[in-house]
């Protein structure tokens, strides 16, 4: 290389730095242990929920997305999302995958844009087989409703995920307000 | 015959001309890098700049105000009653600014806008607007604290306050 004259020691140092950087990139971004797989699946579910179905939602694409979201849940599930927003108390609950699909199909079109960021994700495996995990994290959802109202809500997420039929799925999911009077 | 030589006045030794000092860009870059790195670390972990967004702490803090959060505070001190604290809302990018009012084991109740802690009304001179909030008696559970904003003029359901995990205490505003 023209103009690049390195001594032997400097070449060794350069190679060592490149190797260390590659190792760090692999460790933080490409390492796939059980915990990483569960976190990745959690993020996939969130990214899927953020996707906006085109049109009114009551169409083929909306139905397809609702069914695809259903794949993130076990057939028997327990979902409870409650909170207070703009003076309104709401609770969203579902006990089966079919209820998740129908809730998504009806409710998702009411939100025109949605962005969810997860933080402080903790994964603990509940058995030696490492096929059941408890997941806790905090989530910040920002978006706009169909009426044009902007919302920003923080929630504490606690979930139980199981490795079922080749994929990690939610067996239960709770989203509670970070701060509440109760 | 000796000729007395006239001595020329001596020039001051300090007034000589130096060639212009060549700027050492490597040193400048390293210094700038160190300063930038130190600033980022301080802003992330010690004094975090914050823009206040919301009216729940009015009139003590108005919306669009600015402050710094001193983050290591609760690694040294315990929270005090009436103290304004910064709480992690979700992650490390959105925080809540609230006032600590009760601790684990204490009971809290709101009757006609007056906060009662352990059955006694709490003097809150910072609350400038009255309200008609009501909340039945409840005990602050272990590991939690009870917080409220200073602005009680809004309906209680729109006010983000109540019990929050002690672990979410992030720091204190420096003004």
List keywords for this structure.
heterodimer; A: alpha+beta; Nuclear Transport Factor 2, Chain: A; six-stranded mixed sheet; elongated; B: 175 residues; alpha+beta; Umud Fragment, subunit A
Notes on the structure:
The complex is a heterodimer of chains A (182) and B (175). Chain A has four helices and six strands; from the N terminus they run αααββαββββ. Chain A has helices at residues 8-30, 34-50, 60-70, 97-107, and strands at 73-85, 88-96, 111-125, 132-145, 150-164, 167-177. A six-stranded mixed beta sheet of chain A has the order 2-1-6-5-4-3, with helices on one face. In chain A, helix 3 packs antiparallel against helix 4. The longest helix of chain A has 23 residues, at 8-30. The termini of chain A are far apart. Chain B has a single domain (49-173), classed as Ribbon (Umud Fragment, subunit A), CATH 2.10.109.10. In chain B, 14% of the residues lie in helices and 32% in strands. Chain B has two helices and eleven strands. In chain B, strand 3 and strand 4 (94-102) form a beta hairpin. The longest helix of chain B is centred in the N-terminal third of the chain and has 21 residues, at 25-45. Chain B starts with 24 loop residues before the first helix and ends with a strand. Classes of the chains: A alpha+beta (182), B alpha+beta (175).
Helix and strand topology:
The complex is a heterodimer of chains A (182) and B (175).
Chain A: H1 8-30, H2 34-50, H3 60-70, E1 73-85, E2 88-96, H4 97-107, E3 111-125, E4 132-145, E5 150-164, E6 167-177
Parallel strand pairs in A: 1-6
Antiparallel strand pairs in A: 1-2, 3-4, 4-5, 5-6
Helix pairs in contact in A: 3-4
Chain B: H1 25-45, E1 47-51, E2 66-70, H2 73-76, E3 84-90, E4 94-102, E5 107-111, E6 114-117, E7 120-121, E8 135-139, E9 144-148, E10 162-165, E11 169-173
């Amino acid at each position: 290389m023209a103009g690049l004259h390195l001594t032997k020691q400097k070449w060794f140092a350069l190679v060592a730095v490149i190797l260390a950087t590659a190792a760090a990139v692999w460790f933080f971004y490409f390492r796939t242990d059980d915990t990483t797989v569960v976190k990745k699946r959690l993020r996939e579910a969130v990214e899927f929920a953020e996707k906006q179905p085109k049109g009114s939602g009551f169409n083929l694409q909306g139905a397809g997305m609702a069914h695809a979201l259903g794949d993130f849940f076990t057939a028997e599930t327990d979902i409870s999302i409650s909170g207070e927003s703009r003076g309104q108390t709401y609770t969203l609950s579902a006990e089966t995958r079919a209820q998740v699909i129908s809730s998504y199909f009806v409710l998702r079109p009411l939100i025109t844009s949605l962005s969810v960021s997860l933080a402080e994700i903790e994964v603990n495996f509940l058995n030696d087989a490492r096929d059941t995990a408890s997941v806790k994290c905090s989530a910040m959802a920002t978006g706009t409703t169909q009426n044009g109202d902007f919302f920003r809500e923080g929630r504490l997420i606690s979930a139980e995920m199981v490795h079922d039929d080749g994929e990690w799925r939610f067996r239960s999911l709770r989203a509670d307000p970070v701060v509440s009077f109760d | 015959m000796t000729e007395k030589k006239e001595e020329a006045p001596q020039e001051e030794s300090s007034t000589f001309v130096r060639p212009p000092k060549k700027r050492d860009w490597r040193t400048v870059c390293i210094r700038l890098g160190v300063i930038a790195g130190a600033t980022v670390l301080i802003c992330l972990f010690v004094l975090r700049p914050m823009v206040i967004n919301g009216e729940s702490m009015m009139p003590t803090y108005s919306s669009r105000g600015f402050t710094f959060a001193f983050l290591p505070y609760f690694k040294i001190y315990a929270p005090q009653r009436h103290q304004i604290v910064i709480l992690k809302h979700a992650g490390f990018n959105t925080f809540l600014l609230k006032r600590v009012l009760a601790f684990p084991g204490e009971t809290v109740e709101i009757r006609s806008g007056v906060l009662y802690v352990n059955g006694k009304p709490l003097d809150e001179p910072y609350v400038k607007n009255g309200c008609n909030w009501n909340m039945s008696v409840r005990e602050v559970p272990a590991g939690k604290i009870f917080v409220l904003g200073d602005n009680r003029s809004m309906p209680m359901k729109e006010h983000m306050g109540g019990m929050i995990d002690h672990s979410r205490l992030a720091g204190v505003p420096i003004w």
